[in-house]
Specification:
Low-confidence stretches: 95-100, 110-122, 316-321, 539-548
CATH superfamily of the largest domain: Histidine kinase-like ATPase, C-terminal domain
Number of helices: 20
Protein name: Molecular chaperone HtpG
CATH architecture of the largest domain: 2-Layer Sandwich
Distance between the termini: 113 Å
Family: Belongs to the heat shock protein 90 family.
Helix content: 25-40%
Radius of gyration: 35 Å
CATH class of the largest domain: Alpha Beta
Strand order of the largest sheet: 1-6-5-4-7-3-2-8-9
Keywords: ATP-binding, Chaperone, Nucleotide-binding
Shape: elongated
Pfam family, one: HSP90
Structural class: alpha+beta
Largest sheet: 9 strands, mixed
Length: 606
């Protein structure tokens, strides 16, 4: 008996939409058809476990094959199959999902069934028409006494359905590949697609006599059943080009209030603004969906690598793009908490080992503290600060370490730091001579991190060591008197202004210690920090600071012997220029022609 009919859809234009717009990439067709075959196999296994199928399961592989000469691709399974009536119901009525009906029917009998079924929308089968101009289905139900069914459709809304001889249960989907899709007749192309999307499906997938998947990847197992070597081996399976071992990892395994499994690895994070992203792979019931996980994983956690698998993450119809909702937000929050708990545990259990890793994870932790207040609240106890002597402190420890000696006249703690210990060595040394401690904050996010800590830590300010003279960095109650009269100070200012002849250099005379340098060049802390933040990705109002020209404060030490020489000598202007150039040299600002002139002048003054 042969039957002809029309596929039940609401518009004649649905096929072009499916073929051209529903799926973002034509290669998805193979993922969808293999997933359907796995669904059918999983359903049969569930019925066998429930005692509703008493036959022999036998081999349950899904087999994919290609015949280049015949221009066909076949996906064959030995799942529960379909009768002719079921084909009419499930295939001809677009968007009626057999998976949904099956779950509803059996959810009371087997709670695990829902998590074993992949299909949600009933549209996956029609992705076949993106690459095929004719599709056949040969199917036979597992139910006793049923006949085989043969369905054919050429991509229009017309189909034929007839009985056929088929010995074994299950379904064969045969795609007759269209002329514009020759690439999918290449075995290497199909293997690549299967490896990408089906590598961890729970039923064996065979292609060219080789099983291409692991049916039980380690994220589906209990952590107690795995060794460190298992985790490391899996990491290199995911990222075969990575030469580094992961620093550590988190095994996610939760079934309430949402279902989530997976493994997140902490890689070595390089101090770069272009941070590696799209390294976390999202799966739904072991089917690869995407590596775009920005809605599921917080921004700062996208530095991690690994796998997340959840049937509770809502996808759109094409299963290609995420749909943010309350469940996604809960998963996002949960992952953040698990990461914070893991870092806290590592810090408490073995601080020495944690400190050894700090160079690799510090940027990641700071990024998280900047991005998420809840993460900051947890991380403040295991975030570390490193001083120029390479000693590490928690935020609380460091505050206690410096507050006795580094409180200013307003009883605020002043934290001194350098972003380039070598270039700012003279300033660091001057601070250390006063007994001050200096932090090393030279990572790309540190300009932003400094601002965050000033907001969070009470009565605490941060100053870069070259932001002022050492005596001005931490202002005390005591004052130093100038040995120069007011007239001499004005004369000295004029001599230096004329010698420097640069409006970006703002000259002032101040009574510093005779042991301090004769001239000190500094940059306003606020302006310099804003420019640093703008250069490292600060947005909004900070963009304006990047357009401002650099300006510097030139402090002439009224109490240094050089000041007297400049005032009293016939070549005071020359001495002033020399003292200024020395200060520039200390800042690494003396270059090119000015450096050549300085060397020549130094020789003349000897």
């Amino acid at each position: 008996m042969q039957e002809t009919g029309s596929i039940s859809i609401h518009t004649e234009n649905i096929f072009p939409i499916i073929k051209k717009f529903l799926y973002s990439d034509h290669e998805i067709f193979l993922r969808e058809l293999v997933s359907n075959a796995v669904d059918a196999t999983q359903k049969l296994k569930s019925l066998a476990q429930l005692g509703e199928f008493k036959g022999e399961l036998g081999e349950l592989k899904v087999k994919v094959s290609v015949d280049k000469e015949a221009r066909t691709i076949t996906i064959a399974d030995r799942g529960l199959g379909m009768t002719a009536e079921e084909i009419k119901k499930y295939i001809n009525q677009i968007a009626f999902s057999g998976a949904t009906e099956f779950v509803e029917q059996y959810k009371e009998k087997d709670a695990a069934t829902k998590d074993q079924i992949i299909g949600q929308f009933g549209l996956g089968f029609y992705s076949a028409f993106m690459v095929a101009d004719n599709v056949e289905i040969f199917s036979k139900s597992y139910k006793e006494g049923t006949e085989g069914a043969h369905w054919v459709c050429d991509g229009s809304t017309e189909f034929t359905l007839e009985t056929t001889e088929k010995e074994d249960r299950g379904t064969n989907v045969v795609l007759h590949v269209a002329a514009d899709s020759d690439e999918f007749l290449e075995a290497s192309r199909l293997r690549g697609i299967l490896t990408k999307y089906c590598k961890f499906l729970p039923i064996e997938i065979e292609f060219e006599d080789t099983v291409i998947n692991q049916t039980a990847p380690i994220w589906t197992k209990q952590p107690s059943d795995l060794t460190d070597e298992d985790y490391k081996k899996f990491y290199h399976e995911l990222y075969p080009l990575s030469l580094d071992e992961p620093l550590f990892w988190i095994h996610l395994n939760v079934d309430y209030p949402f279902n989530l499994t997976g493994i997140l690895y902490f890689p070595k994070v390089k101090d770069e603004l272009q941070l590696q992203r799209n390294k976390i792979q999202l799966y739904s019931r072991q089917v690869f969906i995407t590596d775009e996980v920005k809605d599921v994983v917080p921004e700062f956690l996208m530095l991690l690598h690994g796998v997340i698998d959840s049937p509770d993450i809502p996808l759109n119809v094409s299963r290609s793009f995420l749909q943010a909702d309350a469940a996604v937000r809960k998963i996002n929050t949960y992952i953040t908490k698990k990461v914070a708990d893991k870092l806290s545990s590592l810090f408490k259990q073995d601080r020495a080992a944690y400190e050894e890793k700090w160079g690799d994870i510090g940027l990641f932790v700071k990024y998280g503290m900047l991005s998420d207040d809840k993460f900051y609240d947890k991380a403040k106890d295991f975030a570390l600060l490193k001083n120029v002597d390479d000693k590490l402190f928690t935020l609380t420890e460091y505050t206690e370490h410096v507050q006795a000696n580094q409180k200013d006249k307003n009883d605020s703690t002043v934290v001194l730091y350098t972003n380039d210990a070598e270039a700012q060595h003279a300033y660091v040394a001057a601070a250390q001579e006063r007994g001050y401690d200096v932090l090393n904050l030279d990572q790309v996010l540190d300009p932003h991190f400094v601002g965050l800590l000033e907001q969070k830590l009470e009565k605490t300010s941060f100053k870069r060591v070259d932001a002022a003279t050492v005596g001005q960095l931490i202002e005390k109650e005591e004052t130093t008197e100038s040995v120069l009269s007011e007239d001499d100070q004005n004369k000295l200012t004029t001599l230096f202004v004329d010698a420097i002849a640069n409006p970006a250099m703002h000259v002032k005379v101040a009574p510093l210690s005779p042991q301090d340098a004769p001239v000190v060049i500094t940059q306003n802390e606020f302006m310099r920090r804003m420019k640093d933040m703008q250069r490292t990705g600060g947005g909004g109002g900070m963009q304006m600071f990047g357009a401002f020209p650099d300006s510097f404060d030139v402090t002439v030490n009224a109490n240094h012997p050089v000041a007297q020489k400049v005032l009293s000598g016939d070549d005071g202007g020359k001495l002033a220029k020399q003292a200024f150039d020395l200060a520039l040299l200390a800042q690494g600002l003396l270059k090119g022609e000015a450096l050549t002139a300085f060397v020549k002048r130094s020789t003349e003054l000897l």
